[in-house]
Amino acid sequence: METVLLTARVTWDQGCYLAKVDQLPLEGSGDTVEAAKDELIEVVKSWIQEHDGTVGLSQTLADAGFPGVEDDTEVQLEFVE
């Protein structure tokens, strides 16, 4: 099974923490780093579920630099400093 590793970073932005995926326009925010991470995880899960089994997921990930995504590809989210 192939794995796609999405990288995310948390920054301080205008009074709150903002967690963003580097390769995709997905983000979450919160009053703490953990709250921003948790929200981003939920956003990514919802995004994957919404696009699961559609050409949209494969195409969006291909456009983000992950070509060849199949139905059984595992998507992982990694937070880096």
Give a quick rundown of the structure.
The chain has 81 residues and is of the alpha+beta class. 35% of the residues lie in helices and 35% in strands. It has a 4-stranded mixed sheet, with helices on one face.
CATH class: Alpha Beta
Q: Identify the overall geometry.
A: elongated
Total domain units: 1
Mean pLDDT: 90
Helix content: 25-40%
Strand elements, count: 4
What's the end-to-end separation, in Å? 28 Å
Structural class: alpha+beta
Percentage of β-strand residues: 25-35%
User: Main sheet, how many strands, which sense, barrel?
Assistant: 4 strands, mixed
Question: So how many helices?
Answer: 2
Task: Write the CATH fold name.
Answer: TTHA1013/TTHA0281-like
Q: Radius of gyration over alpha carbons? A: 13 Å
SSE layout:
Elements: E1 3-13, E2 16-21, E3 27-30, H1 33-51, H2 55-63, E4 74-80
Structural overview:
The protein is an alpha+beta fold and about 80 residues long. It has one domain (about 5-80): TTHA1013/TTHA0281-like, CATH 3.30.2390. The chain contains 2 helices and 4 strands; from the N terminus they run βββααβ. It has helices at about 35-50, 55-65, and strands spanning about 5-15, 15-20, 25-30, 75-80. It has a 4-stranded mixed beta sheet, with helices on one face. A hairpin with a 2-residue loop joins strand 1 and strand 2 (about 15-20).
